[in-house]
Write a structure and sequence with these properties.
37% strand; 19% helix; six-stranded mixed β-sheet
């Protein structure tokens, strides 16, 4: 029932963004990766978003190596509901060329130390990573004849931010 000090440290790499969150004695690292993919046929104007939470033995001896356990699966479901199903992340803004190219985002969260309050630490790390993430500029060429998508050289501070609500 006590408040825990929170600290967020962000670092951008050439192809992904990583954020480290310390919440009390809990430490989690979140990173976002993006790739251009073909959209689902039933959602041609929406991008894709997946969450993966890793709870390994380095965080706590209670966690095992290999397949995600019930705690990791619960955190995955919680974060996906929070970010995708509650429309915190606008999926339509990830569309580059309707029916042909959309951004697919992967949010990976690795818990390094488990000192309690995993939901809050993972939520803070995930949101901080998404808020600091920048999409590479994608340009649609030959729009009238045969549209193609070209990526401009990536500079982390020049990319576009994700549209996040609530």
């Amino acid at each position: 029932l006590e408040s825990r000090p929170a600290e967020v440290r962000a670092a951008a790499g050439p192809e992904d963004f990583a954020v480290e969150v310390l919440l009390g004695h809990t430490r989690a690292v979140a990173e976002v990766k993006a790739s251009l993919v073909r959209p689902f046929e039933d959602r041609p104007n929406e991008g894709m978003f997946n969450v993966f939470v890793e709870l390994g033995p380095m965080a706590s001896p209670a966690f095992e190596v290999g397949r995600p356990g019930p705690a990791a699966l619960g955190l995955n479901r919680f974060l996906e509901r929070l970010l995708r199903e509650r429309h915190a992340l606008e999926m339509e803004s990830l569309c580059v060329l309707a029916g042909q190219k959309v951004w697919s985002l992967q949010l990976d969260i690795h818990v390094l130390d488990h000192g309690g309050n995993l939901h809050d630490a993972c939520t803070l790390a995930g949101l901080a990573a998404l808020l600091s993430f920048r999409l590479q500029e994608a340009v649609v060429e030959n729009r009238e004849t045969r549209p193609t998508v070209a990526l401009r050289p990536f500079h982390p501070h020049d990319g576009s931010q994700l549209t996040i609500h609530r």
